Each structure stands twice: as structure tokens, then as C-alpha cells.
Amino acid sequence: MGSFRVGTPLTDDRVLARYCNNRGAEHNARGEQAAAYAYYKAALPTDRSFTAAYGNLPQLYLRRGYVDGAERLLRQAVALSDEADLALWSLHRLLLAQGRTDEAVQIAQLQQARRERDPYYWLGVGVERIGRQDWPAAVAALERAQALTTGFDEAHRYLALAYWRAGDAPRARAQWARLDGRPGRDPAFVALVRKIDSAP
Questions:
Q1: Does residue 160 contact residue 142 with C-beta atoms inside 8 Å?
Q2: 5: Cβ contacts below 8 Å, ≥ 6 apart
């Protein structure tokens, strides 16, 4: 999926943190744990708001049995950002593995609360329900995505499709109008535009 939304500019430090994290991931995939550790550790102080490194380094710690260090980093990632999904998932799994069920339930509740506020989560749910041809459920999920943000082209495109399949041509047409001439390049969407335009 593509988007016409403007991205966030990155400073040199933020670019370097992502580079170090990516190199760490490459070494980790090859089983080169010492090199992966060095790159992940370099990423952390370079951009302390970049949660991916806080989520990746604990995986190395867990392999070595450094459970306390892993948990500390995962909790730090969760505290730093509402977008630390991998860290939340890893922390939940760690707590379950240790039999700390009450704490794991709290983390699961936090995961669900964050999902409820995430338009991309609802977009994913909507697309999955489109795949099942469950048009009312797709409409409901995509309307949630649309309500949580503005200028979300993907939500408008998929909502147009879901409305159309649910038999609501006026609402499908209204979604295309919100795209302001940006229907996307997917041939299926281009064909849908033609159908919507020709509908009574």
C-alpha cells in the first residue's frame, strides 16, 4: 500500500540509530551475536526514542539468560513509545514464560488499549475482513481507522470498496471524493472507480 502522507524528517543521529539497528539485525540473522550486540548497543544512545533497538537487544539477552536486563530494556521501550508493539509482545511472552500471569494480563490489556487507538490496526482488521467478504465488519473496522486520523488514503480506498460491496454506492462515491483524485494505481481500485462513477 502506498500513501501520500508526508513522512517525518530524520536527523543524522536518528538515521545512524536505524543504520546500527539494521546492521545488528543482519548480524543477528547470520548468528553473529557479538557483532549484533555491538550494533544494537551503538543504536541505543544514538537515538533514545528509537524503540526498535530496545526491542531487538533483549532478544540477544534472553538467549544468553540475561532475563532481568531483557525485561528492563523491554519496559523502557514500552515507556518510550506507543508504537513499541514488538517490545510489548516480547514482554508479554517473557512474563508468561516466568509464570507472572497477573503482570502478563496487564501487558495484554495495554496491548489491546494501544490497538484500539491505532488506525493501522483497524486498517489491517478491515482488509482482513474484506478478504473474508464480511462487508459489514469491514465497513465497521475501516470506519474506526478513518475516525482515528485524517488524510488516510488507504482507509478511504478500502472503505469505498467495502461500501460498494455492501451495496452503498453513495458512501462509496463519497470516499473516492475524499481521495481528491488519488485513487491509487492498483488496477482493482481503478476498475472500482469506473463502476462507482457509472452507478446510479
A1: no
A2: 151, 152, 153
CA-based R_g, the chain, Å: 21
Mark out the alpha helices in the chain (DSSP H runs): 12-29, 33-46, 51-64, 67-80, 85-97, 101-116, 119-131, 135-147, 153-165, 169-178, 187-198
Neighbours of 63 (CB within 10 A): 11
The C-alpha cell at 26 is 543482519
Q: Could you read off the pLDDT of 73-97 as tens digits, one per residue? A: 889 888 887 767 788 888 899 999 9
DSSP of 47-67: -TT-HHHHHHHHHHHHHHT-H
Is the full-model pTM beyond 0.70?
no
Cell representation of residue 133: 467478504
Is 25 in contact with 56 (CB distance < 8 Å)? yes
